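To assess whether the prediction recovers the assembly geometry, we first specified each molecular entity separately, as shown.
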Amino acid sequence: MDYETPQFFRVMQYAAGADRDVVDMVSGNPDWEPPEALREGLRDYADGDVSEFQYPPSVGLAELRTEIAERRGVDRSRVIVTNGAGEANHLATTGALEREGGGSELIMTDPVYPYYAGRANLLDADATYVPVDETGQLDPADVRAAASDETAAIVVNSPNNPTGAVYPPETVEALVAVAEDHDAVLVADEVYDHYDFTGAFESALAADSDHVVATNSFSKTLAVTGLRVGYAVFPPEDGPLGDLVERARTRHMIQNVTGSRPAQAAVLRALRETPPEYYERNRERLRERIDRFTDALDRAGAEYTTPGGSFYVMARFDGFPGTMENVERLIDEAGVAGMPGEAFGESRGDWIRFALVTPRVDEAAERLADYLG
Amino acid sequence: MDYETPQFFRVMQYAAGADRDVVDMVSGNPDWEPPEALREGLRDYADGDVSEFQYPPSVGLAELRTEIAERRGVDRSRVIVTNGAGEANHLATTGALEREGGGSELIMTDPVYPYYAGRANLLDADATYVPVDETGQLDPADVRAAASDETAAIVVNSPNNPTGAVYPPETVEALVAVAEDHDAVLVADEVYDHYDFTGAFESALAADSDHVVATNSFSKTLAVTGLRVGYAVFPPEDGPLGDLVERARTRHMIQNVTGSRPAQAAVLRALRETPPEYYERNRERLRERIDRFTDALDRAGAEYTTPGGSFYVMARFDGFPGTMENVERLIDEAGVAGMPGEAFGESRGDWIRFALVTPRVDEAAERLADYLG
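The predicted structure of the complete assembly is given in tokenized form:
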């Protein structure tokens, strides 16, 4: 499978070129407001001193790193601010692959977030995909069966894109144990941590293991995918995998020098001043959308997974597999754009992923129920 | 030599910890105002629609790419907006090294901009350094003598950091010919193109060769090193090295997803609305600083190169070589912080680089003249 040109763009272009009104449920861009403090932070930055327009430290603004470290309960030296979670995952994965005496295999899930698979291709790593069950849950025993001393990293994402699964703490702990037993790294991408509807989500950092890198970003949390502020928390420098953070600092410096400062300043302001109600409101909005959308899927006679977290519902329609061709038909004939399941791997070829980050969820649901019901 | 932790940070930390007032002539951060339109662009962005806070296209905002393409006289498909010139150089260099049947050698100059050397280390490339002459000029015949079919890329920087040399068009044309003759890529980093005092600077794009990648950024041009907006212009897609741009798009997407949107929006606004006087004023300011600083170096009995471009003056003081130890002495005893020449390679070990991006150039010059004169 060719993960090198993510199909997001193909589908979005097709939808944009359609000869009718289309509800966009393709990409994971929040459609709600960023916090007011974030806009305030950008305005203040615009009026700031000349020196604030110059390079921030390569690892990120010190105050932002402190704020992150305190929230995550880790030493600041473990935190690198990155150009979104994309770069955080890149630094963590390349670091794991470059360890001396380490393996060349990346274990991922099927379905997989396409960027992970694309990264495995780019880095010429051996990619192993462990299928999840129908509800999106990953059985750590399957990961243990796949793992070996050739395993450099296990890359997981919970709350999950595309399945919406939230791995229970036992799963994460068991995955940490697999990583430890094979001297590998568990890369835990937790960008949807603020969109957990189960109340059971726990960060992989809770395991307090030297074999975990947790990655995250403010893209989804603060509804600012375009700002590109993320971070990774690496194992402590004085531990057995202490070289990972040093390696990541070097790569970050060579490939990006540093991240964008106005974005970092705005995120810092937002973290400090945004009340808990902001996050709760966005969760509640998604919960309501999920209810309404899955009701319509019931009317359409579809199978689907009710997400425990993240922004997505995967659905399967009888006799209408999730191929690119059918996704295009859905755009043209029903006016709803989703992502073909085949874009995420073998196991979800029959499914279509719908992103609930549009105010037009009801309309889309009605259209699907009418067209496929 | 260990280029992996650029010595900028060591020197800056030492200067910050000094027990006295120190004039910082270490890093290349402009100390003058960004254009007013850039601040305006950030303010407007802060007040923008929710959708503007979401992912820009991976290759950069379409309007910004159009603006760049028109200014450079190239097709827009050749332009990728990057996280500063750092990422542009990274994409160009990795792309050259990954070409099928291509070489594994990078030819650079000595002295070298430390990030290029650090990148060669990180990518495990064979690094060959071609010494420049006392004035900083590169003899293309030396590059031709060093080049072979193992050469993947020749990486140059003009106007140059650290020497201040501006390569004449004949040099650049001859370097292009070497790249063409060995099926290699000339990576021409032109971030100081707006700080040419010779009037003779010409972009490597003028050669109209399929073997050139020109990299650039707005960091120095618009005095915004912290915004991280740069770009690379790759060879045309339908030419013999047409795969470079596709490869770069993929790597950029995998490692960064996309760049920061407020920074791109602000740069676009600045490009459209900033009058030519802004750039001329900054050049003039630097010209004056160079005159005053080199006058003081004369009084100190130092040898130096008068820069044809960029922000830097390299100087050599009799019996006072540019080691880290002497740089620290200069901080403690004269109150002036420069960069040790040895940070840039073998050939400038005796020299110290002074960055003229401080309003306190006169003061620093007096201190040097007093201490070393």
